[in-house]
Write a structure and sequence with these properties.
Helix content: 25-40%
Largest sheet: 7 strands, mixed
Radius of gyration: 19 Å
Strand content: 5-15%
Order of helices and strands: HEHHHHHEEHEEEHEHEHHE
Oligomer: single chain
Structural class: alpha/beta
Amino acid sequence: MSIGAMDALAARRRRNSARPVSALRPIVVGVSGGAIAAAAIAMGMTHDQARQTAIEHPGPKVLGTRSFRALLAQRALYPQPRIRELAHAIVGDRTFADFALEADPSGRPPHHAASSLLIPVFSAEHGTLLLPRDLPKLGMSDLPVVDALVAATRIPGALPAATGLEDVFDGGCQYRVPHDIFAPRPALILDLYGPQPYDSRGGLLFPLLHPSLPAISHRPRPFCDKTLCEATIFAHQPYGAALRAPDRTTEEQFDAGYRITTGWIGSRTDEQLLNVVDPGVLGLPDKTFAASRTGSITVE
């Protein structure tokens, strides 16, 4: 879905521009598994590169084998996942410093710089954190993005911790769709599910899944807001599909997601798309925003 959105916006940008245009460089937020998709966008992966990476790292292989014994002993239903391998195939050994939007000759740490990649995580001590901005709260000045991706996809009770981040979990623990990160700027939202449920009570079980976690009674999904709902591309997968065995091949899943976003964007006028991206993204004249950057994309 993420690659399809980028390709469709780039095609619209080229169509509207009389002269050659620079490549889009979006500011991307990814929640849970969407953090990995966001990293692929921030890296500028092409359709073919992303599709091949998905084929080489299919979901069942990435999660590994389920073990209820490990759930009881290690609090991880999937005790030997290969998320780190997938993340490394996308970002390599890069740290957050490599995703700074502007070069900083002063050498300031990345939490002081605007970043093209933003990753929400949930800290048992601090609540929801946004990396790299909140790295100091974890006692860090920088972090390999691979580690951030392992932590960001750590569903409580399902997956083990990243080394050194034992009390850091999936960014969706508290806020499933942190769209307000971009307010008041427009943002295109990609969602694996549909608008409902608007709220999840699964966070009440967190203390049973890990002793460091608090119970979270409400985990809102804000799609009761009509305007926000209209700015979201939904895949309409069954709720919780991320941990279920897929009924399609990896190639079929990738191609289906690509068609969803390219079709959605292709069916809308420039005026409609201005609700989700800045004018410069579409190759339209604008005095406020630089034409070389998108507004934002957030992925759940």
